[in-house]
Amino acid sequence: MKKIFGFIILGFYVSACQGPGFSLPPQTDGFGQAVKFNNKVDILMMIDNSSSMLSKQAKLAAQVPAIVSGLDAQNLDYRIAIVNTDVRNGGTGGQYMGNPSILTKGMPGLATTLQNRVLQGETGSDLESGLQSMKMALQADLADGVSTFMRDDAMLVLLILSDEDDFSLGTVDSYISYFNSVKKPFASGNRSWLLNYIGILPNDPVCTTAGIFADPGARYLDIADATGGVKESICNPDFTNVVSNVRTRINQYLSDYYLTREPKLGTIVVTKNGVNVPEGATNGWSLSQDPNNGKYFIRFNGNAIPSPTDDVKVTYSPASAT
User: How far apart are CA 212 and CA 60, in angstroms?
Assistant: First the structure.
């Protein structure tokens, strides 16, 4: 199902005119307090546990309280599980780590437990297989047809932390196909999962190519691009902005608002709690078209991203109107 806030569609009316032709009145789509907000997010963290990774894990662990408080502030119903990259015989990859393996909102000591779990160490195989590990864990979880982690009506967020490329068996396309198969599109047709990457970027100005740093995570980057996920440098001195950007992208996807008709440009009016929201990529709204289904949607940016209790309405004239 999609997801986000729901909508109200006002009826269309065609009025006869003296001369030839007709016109359509503006259409109003809205979501607000009267509509249940689907705020479910399942976050699968893939932590590289090969050599050289402990310091990077520590930077992410330091941001865990901010991650938890940010999810709570948005009133999100979340689950978090962690896997690592070590899928060799005897490795601990391919399974959700810890006990309990699924962390949920409101658990006692959640932030501390998650901090400790992010610290997967650096004794795992140097043939990092993060995509394979995530797939193995999900396959095992779905063995009886019912997942203990993924919910059909939740957004699945894959969060990668690695300073190497992925060496999993199989092509990137095969993993995209797998995640598509276990996370069907929402009712609106838009994708119900995305991959966010924290690692080595191509021509990364923050990283050095010597020493412990190797190649960019090309395979992870391809999936991040395919799903619209965030790509952040693992070489940032701390992950404050990194985590903030990831959280913002999650909130954007949860509040992407799909229109029921193609809008006529220049006629779109967006209000939040009765106040006009300006068009703008920084702290406003922008119009996009989903390449997967051709539908148009409103994306909220910066401080314009609504919360579940906000009353948001989008008014526009359909492109077919004269």
Answer: 18
